[in-house]
Amino acid sequence: MSTLLPFARRPRPAPAGAGRAPSAERFISIEGIARRYPAPGGRATTIFENLWLPVRRGEFVCMVGHSGCGKTTVLNILAGLDAPSEGTVIVDGQAIGGPSLDRAVIFQGHALLPWRSVLGNVAYAVSSRWPRAKRAEVEARARKAIATVGLAGSEHKRPAELSGGMKQRVGIARALSIDPKILLMDEPFSALDALTRGTLQDEVRRICIETGQTVFMITHDVDEAIYLADRIVLMTNGPEAKVAEIVENPLPKARDRTQLHHAPGYYALRNHLMDFLVTRSKTLRDEGMPAGYDPRRPPVIRPALSEADAAAIAGAGPDILRA
Ligand SMILES: Nc1ncnc2c1ncn2[C@@H]1O[C@H](COP(=O)(O)OP(=O)(O)OP(=O)(O)O)[C@@H](O)[C@H]1O
Ligand SMILES: [Mg+2]
């Protein structure tokens, strides 16, 4: 979509002292952030602290962990809607100082303006991003984004006339229409029926691959993470949650949702994630992290393949491991 119209990015003032040479390996760099809330007796509850995470440009990262471990808090900090108690987040060489149209958020509850049509909701975002753009240009960009999510023909409907899946598509169109540097999604499909969820997962995946979008997404759904993510960040239970490990997805980038369970490495990956959620997320919190754990460099895991899986991957040539 970035080629649709030759809009210039609005120059944004850099927060003081925030400049950093941008790096593709650390397109997003979460650096030692903590979030604490006041607790009774003048104490503080630490939701998480000393959290470090780099995200590569164009990477799709999913964060998985039990309720209350601080996933939404991390996403809100990335969006600039919340500020860390300590630490900083750098995006494309600049420290986050507040909300920005460079970072689009897709919420679980889509948050559409009820009095505006589908076109009006998306066009509103486009004209906020490019306030000097001509009306026809804004409309063309909005229509293109609406068509991309399969809603051409519904431009003049109001949110009340749309199904849950259609509303969520409008939220996705609105986020993508502003050509964001990063896309932030907080359980965007969890309220949808299985069929709609699958269709939207397919569309989001296709769009993100086509546009090279960098994505940070929260999900409770292990299969969704396996289908969408390049890397899966596993959080221990809260409070004082930690990044237990970063799991590399060994499945080929060219994945078919309906055939995933036949892919070599699928069961090793799925079992690893399930074991973590069922047992290790709690025992690591209760018994502490293993000796040598360094929060600045959480362990990077590639779940062990069975011999048959390893042979199948080797036989398929090097491309199958392209993640
Ligand atoms: N304003 C607040 N004051 C005090 N505690 C808060 C506040 N907002 C969030 N918390 C606490 O922070 C913790 C993390 O909340 P967060 O919403 O980030 O969790 P989550 O991992 O997204 O959970 P879920 O999976 O249920 O969405 C929770 O224990 C929550 O009670
Ligand atoms: Mg949450």
Features:
alpha/beta, seven-stranded mixed beta sheet, disordered C terminus, binds adenosine-5'-triphosphate, 323 residues, 11 strands, Rossmann fold, 8 helices
Q: Can you describe this structure?
A:
The chain has helices spanning 71-79, 118-129, 135-148, 164-177, 194-211, 222-228, 266-287, 307-315; strands at 28-39, 43-55, 60-64, 86-91, 94-95, 103-106, 182-186, 214-218, 231-235, 243-248, 300-301. The protein has a domain at 28-102 and 180-321: P-loop containing nucleotide triphosphate hydrolases (Rossmann fold), CATH 3.40.50. The radius of gyration is 20 Å and the shape is globular. It has 323 residues and is α/β, with parallel strands linked by helices. Strand 1 (28-39) and strand 2 form a beta hairpin. Helix 2 crosses helix 3 (135-148), helix 2 packs parallel to helix 4 (164-177) and helix 3 packs across helix 4. It contains 8 helices and 11 strands. It has a 7-stranded mixed β-sheet with strand order 6-7-8-3-9-10-11, with helices on both faces. The protein has a 4-stranded antiparallel β-sheet with strand order 2-1-4-5, covered by helices on one side. The longest helix is centred in the C-terminal third of the chain and has 22 residues, at 266-287. 37% of the residues are buried. The structure holds adenosine-5'-triphosphate (ATP) and magnesium ion.
Q: List the helices and strands in order.
A: EEEHEEEHHHEHEHEEHEH
Largest sheet: 7 strands, mixed
Number of strands: 11
Helix content: 25-40%
| Strand-pairing-aware structural class | alpha/beta
According to CATH, what is the topology of the domain at 28-102 and 180-321? Rossmann fold
Query: What is the architecture of the domain at 28-102 and 180-321 at the second tier of CATH?
Result: 3-Layer(aba) Sandwich
- Catalogue the unreliable spans: 1-17, 317-323
Provide the CATH top-level class of the domain at 28-102 and 180-321.
Alpha Beta
Distance between the termini: 23 Å
CATH superfamily of the domain at 28-102 and 180-321: P-loop containing nucleotide triphosphate hydrolases
Please compute the radius of gyration using only Cα atoms: 20 Å
Roughly what fraction of the amino acids lie in strands? 15-25%
Oligomer class: single chain
Shape, per Cα inertia axes: globular
**What ligand molecules are bound, each kind once?**
adenosine-5'-triphosphate, magnesium ion
Average pLDDT, rounded to a whole number, is 88
What is the count of DSSP helices, taking H or I runs of 4+ residues? 8
